[in-house]
Amino acid sequence: MLESRTIAMTTSNYGWVCALFSFVALLPACDQAEACKKAPECARQGKCSASSSGACVVASDEDCKQGEPCKLHGKCSMQQAACSAKVDADCKGSQDCQKLGMCSAYQGGCVDLTRTIQAECSKSCEGEGLCVKQDGQCVALSRRHCAGTSDEKPEAGSPCAELGACEAENGRCVAKSDQDCAKSVVCKQQARCIAKDSLCSATPEDCKKGNSCNTDGKCGVVSGACAAVSAADCRTSSRCKLEGTCSLKDGACIAASDGDCASSAVCSKAKRCQAKGGVCIGSGGGKAGGGSSAPPDKTGPTTIKGLGI
Fold first, then answer.
1. Do 139 and 130 form a contact (C-beta atoms < 8 A)?
2. Which of 2, 45, 122, 159 can bridge 173 by disulfide, Cβ–Cβ 3.0-4.6 Å?
3. How many angstroms separate the CA atoms of 58 and 81, rounded?
4. What was the pLDDT predicted at 286?
5. How far is residue 306's CA from residue 308's CA, in Å, rounded to a whole number?
């Protein structure tokens, strides 16, 4: 007589096993496998097979595909004795994909990658909009990634708010509209208000009207940004009068000679009358008051500490 044994019955094997061995002690196990198929847990959780102990369990991908989690949420593959979304193909046939756009598998569930921030890309997402990983690198897939929100107002510090780069293209955030550029920090601070070649760029007209023309002599355009292009613009800038940056060099106004410094406020009031490294310094080799001899900031107006200017 055949030795009585207990065999785990899955939905894929219980039929032929039970038909072959129904005359022996396997019949109770066959009954349990049939009961699991009919139990609510089969449809709700994919627990359609009987374990060796008689419990209803998830034993195969086939079990998962019979359940509601597969049809509704794309959880069609067995992982660690539970149904989950293992590959994108699991998600693509689901109701969540059709109605909500959640068509990509991530960490066992289906997600809409255009609205997702993956943990491994959290740092690059915040400042660059590169929020999800594809082919081994973090990329931007949507305006939401680039703006940090789906609202009209982008999050401060996002590529959209800072650079006007509000649209995702080829995995990067780029500037595509004058409207986005006009709302950006680079428009307000650097007169880069027109979308051109995927960047917010300045125009000569905007540069001439901008603050940097009066303060820094940056009244022309070089590579899409306001820059000093004329020695005359340098000489009429406020920094020429204040700090002696009256000569043109490489798109910026600098103090190129002692003569530039001689007529400046820093010479008459702070005795910084010698030109060195593009700035006016004192006879001791540095700025009065212990300041550095680095070239002046190129992005905005300046004040002279202690001079009341």
1. yes
2. 159
3. 5
4. 57
5. 6
The predicted-structure confidence for 161-212, as pLDDT tens digits, reads as follows 999 999 999 999 999 999 999 999 999 989 999 999 999 999 999 999 888 8
Q: Tell me the residue type at 302.
A: T
Residue 92 token pair: 């693509």
How far the first Cα of the chain sits from its last, in Å, is 108
Other residues' Cβ atoms within 10 Å of the Cβ of residue 307: 14
Task: Find the angle CA(140)-CA(145)-CA(149) to the nearest 5 degrees.
Answer: 170
- The pair phi, psi for residue 82, each rounded to 5°, is -145, 160
Q: Where are the alpha helices (DSSP H) in 39-147?
A: 40-45, 61-65, 68-73, 88-92, 95-100, 122-128, 143-147
pTM: 0.66
Residue 4 has pLDDT above 70, yes or no: no
Strand partners, 200: 195
Q: What angle do CA 79, 84, 90 make, to 5 degrees?
A: 115
Supply the mean pLDDT for the chain: 85
- Amino acid type, 166: C
